[in-house]
Design goal:
Layout (H helix, E strand, L loop, with lengths): L3 E6 L2 E6 H4 L6 H5 L14 E3 L6 H10 L7 H11 L2 H8 L2 H14 L5 H14 L6 E8 L3 H16 L4 E4 L8 H14 L3 E6 L14 E7 L2
Parallel strand pairs: 1-3, 4-5
Antiparallel strand pairs: 1-2, 4-7, 6-7
Length: about 220
C-alpha cells in the first residue's frame, strides 16, 4: 500500500497517510491496512469504507493531531465505536453529552425491567389504534417499588377486565423517580420519530389511592 492513501468513505473522498490510519494498533482502520486484509476499492481504485462519510473528517483529525471534536459528539462517538479507536472512545465518553447518555441515563434504564420491549409494545398499541385517527393513546402504569405494584393491582385488574391495554414499567432500584422515567420514555419515542406527549390518567375504578401518581396517558400525534 502506498504511503499516501485515498479513501472513499460512503461517497466522501479523503486523502491521508498510511501511518495516520495505522496510528492506533487494534483499531479497525489499522487492521484494514496491515496486509492481513484486502480492503475493497471503488471504480477509481480508492479504498472504500461503507460508512457515513460526513463525520469521518473528525475521526481523521483525531488520528492526525489528537484533537477531540467538540461538535457532532453523538455521531462521532458512533463512528469511533465502529472503528474501535479506544483512546477517542474514552475521551468522548468523558464529554457531558456521552456521559449523560451512556453512563447516567442508559445505566438507569438498564435497571428498569423490559424497558426496550415496553417501548416497542407502546408503539405497537398506538399504531393499532391509529386507523383513521389523528391521535392515539396508550395507558402506562409506572411503579417504582413493590409497594407501588400492590397499590396498582386492583386498578390494573379493572382495566384488564375493560379490555384496555396497559404497559407497565417497573419496579426498579435506582435513584431516578417516576417523572425521570416518563421523560426517558418520551425521549426514546421521539428518537424513533414519534411525536408524543403525556398526561396523568385518572383510573375510574379499582383504585384506593391517587391513580395519577402511577397511571399516565401517552398521546401519539400522527398528522
Amino acid at each position: 500500500v502506498s504511503p499516501i492513501v485515498e479513501l472513499n468513505v460512503g461517497g466522501e473522498m479523503y486523502t491521508t497517510t498510511l501511518s495516520t490510519l495505522k496510528k492506533h494498533p487494534g483499531s479497525k482502520l489499522a487492521e484494514m491496512f496491515t496486509g492481513n486484509h484486502k480492503p475493497r476499492t471503488d471504480s477509481e481504485g480508492r479504498f472504500f469504507i461503507d460508512r457515513p462519510g460526513t463525520h469521518f473528517k473528525y475521526i481523521l483529525e483525531y488520528l492526525r493531531s489528537n484533537q477531540v471534536p467538540t461538535q457532532c459528539i453523538q455521531e462521532v462517538y458512533k463512528e469511533a465505536l465502529f472503528y474501535n479507536i479506544d483512546p477517542l472512545i474514552k475521551q468522548l465518553e468523558d464529554s457531558p453529552q456521552i456521559f449523560g447518555e451512556v453512563v447516567a441515563r442508559k445505566q438507569f434504564l438498564a435497571r428498569v425491567p423490559n424497558y426496550s420491549e415496553n417501548i416497542e409494545l407502546m408503539i405497537h398499541i398506538a399504531r393499532a389504534e391509529a386507523v383513521a385517527s389523528r391521535r392515539s393513546s396508550v395507558i402506562v402504569c409506572v411503579v417504582r417499588s413493590e409497594e407501588d405494584v400492590a397499590r396498582c393491582q386492583d386498578a390494573l385488574s379493572s382495566l384488564d377486565m375493560d379490555k384496555k391495554s396497559v404497559v407497565k414499567f417497573g419496579p426498579w432500584k435506582a435513584a431516578p423517580g417516576i417523572s425521570d422515567l416518563l421523560d426517558c420514555i418520551q425521549m426514546d419515542l421521539e428518537a424513533k420519530g414519534y411525536k408524543t406527549s403525556f398526561q396523568p390518567h385518572i383510573a375510574e375504578k379499582g383504585f384506593r389511592f391517587k391513580s395519577h401518581d402511577y397511571f399516565y396517558k401517552f398521546l401519539f400525534t400522527w398528522w
